[in-house]
Amino acid sequence: MVTARGPARSRYLRRTAAPISIPRDMAIAAAKELGAYYTDEAVARFLVRWAIRRGEDTALDPSFGGGVFLEAAAERVRELGGDAPGAVFGVEIDSDVHREFIGRHQTLNPHQLLCADFFSVGLVDLPQVVAVVGNPPFIRFQRFGGDERRRALARAAEAGVELSQLTSSWAPFLVHAAKFVKSGGRLAMVAPAELAHAAYAVPVIEFLRKTFGSTRVLTFRQKLFPQLSEDTVLILASEKGQPFARFSSVDLIGPAALERFVEPATDLPRGAAVDAEAVEQGQVRLFHYLLPPKVRHLYQELQATRHVTRLGALADVGIGYVSGHNEYFHFTQEEADRQRIPREYLRPAVRRGSELRGVRLTWPDLTALLEEGGANWLLHITEKDGAALPSAVARYVETGVKEGVHRRFKCRSRTPWFGVPHVYVGDAFLTYMNGDEPKLVANEAEAVAPNTLHIVRLHALSAEDLGGTGLATLWQTSLTELSCEIEGHSLGGGMLKLEPTEAGRVVVATPTKARQGLEGLARELDDLLRQGRRREARERADRLILSRGLGLPKQEVELLRQASEALRERRTKR
């Protein structure tokens, strides 16, 4: 049986149309801290109107917070001539919020509104309903641990869904919530946009396909929750227990568009048909379906051609070194001279994407960074060096001990503490946090880089055939720009993040015809990019690599360019 739980604000998000007795700025700050979504009444009303279609329908919000979904459900049932008090059920973990809601809504049946952790609730505690609606808690895996994680993952496993330890709380919550949907019933919930790109969300997509006859995922060009950094989608799953018929994606302008659908069950567009099994197998992402069909099909065709290659087939992509204390381990030229650190203990380092200009990083580029006062020398002491350090280096190490650098987590976890590991000279650098498009720049200076950049190391054949400069040149096309937008994922503030595995999926045109001219094209693109003439550089790369090399018609190249710009604009304006 379920047992009531005390306050748990630090663990579960609150969802309410107007946060209870909390000033708006404090509510938004709390939302960002807790990963909370404050559900707009229009969003809640839309989901409820889609899910509840007859007066005798029953509804459950499994984490009701301020009660915006319960209020909308009660209103909808009354509108359809049903008995609202008997039709509405809810669960809320926070005893203070639960008590406050019960006090404000005495017309609802308090025995149907449980104060409990939803993961401890079973079918002995609540009946199955026609409609489960709500906004599940979204706690990232870093703060979602202990007994709560074990209980949540166990509930998902009971439903046949094995979720990764990297799973955020919303995924097992949604799976467990579906248990309370009657045969033929519906589930309508908010979910983070991670559903469309995160690897841990793939089992959830498979679960929806196997559990419901029809599922629609609603995406929005304008954010549902503009005050928060988290991006979201809406999941509409119906016909529980029926044979799978359709999985689709519907893209809308913004939350205001929901008001147009008076009866969403009949008014809502069917959307683009999603190949859910291909998503489950990692062949495509839900995000692909934001593209117009012509572009989507063109992109899929190009991926399959012999002269278009995934970056992961050409190179290994990994993070740079972790120093443990950047200020201590990096020097400006002036600091290195003052400390009298011998040159053989210093490695040139590029530390951030803004230091990468053009197609190649050269030694004059690094010299310019040092002359501008950049801390672009890394103190690099190998294990064999540690036994007999020059006096100047030994003194600097002693200074680190006095300042407690050796007690830093990364430092105390290695031997010797002052030997920064995993310092590699890659063939190229790749930015992974990007406001515009990701940069891939050849490492002609033989510099190293910390984990603020990805290190690209070409496979033997690629190194011989292309080299870092050739790869960086091929990277500059509209096809690769579009691929970065598709394979990466959007973060708050319009940033695009490329994890190493995502970067490995980015496609690059590698036509034989264009390779003879790569060196000349590299010089031309390098000059244009250093002058800030990005559009001209891309047009030149498109002409030589896509049009002349791959033989793409001008209109297809234009399709790729427009799609890339549309996705980037969508991301940066959110």
Short description:
The relative contact order is 0.08.
Give an account of the 3D structure:
Helix 11 packs across helix 25, helix 19 crosses helix 23 and helix 23 runs antiparallel to helix 24. Strand 2, helix 5 (95-104) and strand 3 form a beta-alpha-beta unit. This protein has 3 domains: 24-290, Vaccinia Virus protein VP39 (Rossmann fold); 291-320 and 424-574; 324-423, no CATH class. It has 574 residues and is an alpha/beta fold. The protein has a 9-stranded mixed β-sheet with strand order 3-2-1-4-5-7-6-8-9, sandwiched between helices. It is built from 25 helices and 22 strands.
Helix-strand layout with pairing:
Blueprint: H1 24-34, H2 41-51, E1 59-61, H3 68-79, H4 84-87, E2 88-92, H5 95-104, E3 113-115, E4 129-134, H6 146-158, H7 170-178, E5 181-192, H8 202-211, E6 212-220, E7 232-240, E8 246-252, H9 264-267, E9 272-273, H10 276-280, H11 293-303, E10 308-310, H12 311-314, E11 315-319, H13 326-329, E12 330-331, H14 333-339, E13 346-348, E14 360-361, H15 363-371, E15 377-379, H16 391-402, H17 409-412, E16 428-431, E17 433-434, E18 440-443, E19 453-458, H18 460-465, H19 467-474, H20 478-487, E20 489-490, E21 496-497, H21 500-505, E22 507-509, H22 512-515, H23 518-530, H24 534-549, H25 554-572
Parallel strand pairs: 1-2, 1-4, 2-3, 4-5, 6-8, 14-18
Antiparallel strand pairs: 5-7, 6-7, 8-9, 10-22, 11-19, 12-15, 13-15, 16-18, 16-19, 17-21, 20-21
Helix pairs in contact: 2-3, 6-7, 7-8, 11-25, 19-23, 20-25, 23-24
